[in-house]
Amino acid sequence: MSLLLLTCPVNGAEPPAWPINEEESAVPAYVLPELMKSEDGKPVKSVDDWRWKRRPELLRIFEEGMYGKAPARPALVYEVLEEAVPALEGKALRKQVRVYFAGKKEGPSMDVLFYVPSAAAGPVPFFWGLNFQGNHTVSADPGILMPRLPAEAPGNPRPKPLLAWKRGDQADRWQIEWVISQGYGTATAWYEEIDPDYDDGFKNGVHGLFPDLEAKRDGTTWGSLAAWAWGLRVGMDYLEMEPRCDARFVALHGHSRLGKATVWAGAQDERFDVVISNNSGCGGAALSKRWFGETVGRINTSFPHWFAGNYRQWNGREAEMPYDQHELLALVAPRGLLVGSAEDDKWADPEGELIAAKQASPAFELLGEKGLAAETKRENSAVSTGNPGYWQRPGKHDVMAEDWKRWTAFLKARWGK
Length: 417
Ligand code: GTR
Description:
Elements: H1 47-67, E1 77-87, E2 92-100, E3 109-117, E4 124-131, H2 159-164, H3 176-181, E5 185-190, H4 211-215, H5 224-239, E6 245-255, H6 257-268, E7 274-278, H7 296-302, H8 325-330, E8 336-342, H9 350-366, E9 389-393, H10 401-415
Parallel strand pairs: 4-5, 4-6, 6-7, 7-8, 8-9
Antiparallel strand pairs: 1-2, 2-3, 3-5
Helix pairs in contact: 5-6
Bound molecules: beta-D-galactopyranuronic acid.
């Protein structure tokens, strides 16, 4: 029994501040806000209603209430660290580029690692996503530049694990050879080069580039998820310039916390033709009002730097929230959205992710997409042929070869290549 609902101290211990439920039978009834009704109570009936009224309204709700407002992106400034060279036994070309965040060649920057099929005759579709442990971990390829250690700062716990992360440690999660074999390119950068993932009062990473914004910090100012999403959009600014990338066909993908950042970036930025959420859970694709797995109170307590301050007002008060994550997913419409869950990943609430995708469907349908295929079930997701697509694989919270296969099948169905 994993239902933890303690109302009084047991043996002198304090009850958990944010009780967690992982039993389906214990999920109470909940009511979702209506996606296709504007704040003024009017129904969303036409493409124009969606495009000019509901979509901007929802973007503002998530920006001010949850992830926080990000500054404008800088002018694109980059430095080619390595021009395309043969790699992966000649199957790919590898390129490495440093993209600066200050609009000049100093200050924080991210190193973007690219592979494209060496056989490609022209620009190819691309996967673009952030990695957890440094570019050198996504493949054993010895040519990948080692990440620079994040700036030392009081309380910075990061350099130590970074030194322990080995080349190729995360290769299973990236499947680069397989992606190349499918005729696609792939690009990645280490998320902590955008904003180190610990609570430092928003001084380091790209937050530190905007002192005026920090001086006025309030409940609507950006947190780390918004910073990673911003970095993903800066990366897209580069991909649009990259001659080997066909920027009309870019699939943004992210796992777990990076899945949350991915969904937020993809919701805002229509240049991403496909958005893939992998096990993104609470604050990503999973509904907040469904009491299962991680909760708003819990995530804001464990990770106080991830969201805008305003989000904390919903700690323990999910039932009163005026929005929920199906409305975030709907912002991807009519572009491609694929939500992936793992069966044993209760913390991320696979069922809540499926329901959110289903509840986002009316926006996709209004805009001419098929919507989540009616027959989609968690246990039989292979039939998920619609848009949004949904897929659940057996196993735990992770990115696996099967996930990449499913993602690629979704892209091939959408792009015809
Ligand atoms: C967990 C967190 C999740 C998820 C995960 C991850 O600790 O509670 O929301 O983001 O980390 O990113 O690996």
